[in-house]
Design brief:
Elements lengths: L2 H9 L3 E7 L2 E6 L3 H5 L4 H9 L4 E7 L4 E6 L6 H7 L4 H14 L9
Antiparallel strand pairs: 1-2, 2-4, 3-4
Helix pairs in contact: 1-5, 4-5
Length: about 110
């Protein structure tokens, strides 16, 4: 399993999808993550978000405890976002693999 998939599956444990329309989502931090986030540099989080080719714009907001992400809905279909942040671990895992494949992040040629 690639690092991006592992990271996405870990991230989903610490956030909830609070708002989602095709092309835009807001993730809210769950209780307990603030201490965990303190161990990370903001630049590391931003570099991780910037490495996803479908993300057009993102904003970390420490005051509201959220991350706003605008994404290309032609590269990541909205139903995969919903599945990634669903309660089902299996649905999330399958969505993470599909997103990685769609973005050619797993060495797969999508021609």
């Amino acid at each position: 399993m690639k690092n991006q998939i592992k990271t996405a599956l870990k991230l989903r444990r610490w956030v909830t999808l609070s708002h989602h329309i095709p092309g835009r989502m807001r993730l809210k931090y769950k209780m307990g993550i603030m201490l965990h986030l303190a161990t990370f540099k903001t630049s590391d989080i931003e570099n991780t978000l910037a490495s996803v080719p479908a993300f057009k714009h993102y904003k970390l907001n420490k005051e509201t405890g959220s991350i706003l992400i605008e994404y290309d809905a032609t590269m990541i279909t909205p139903h995969l976002i919903e599945a990634l942040f669903s309660a089902s671990e299996e649905d999330a895992k399958q969505a993470a693999y599909q997103i990685a494949e769609n973005l050619n992040m797993d060495g797969i040629n999508n021609e």
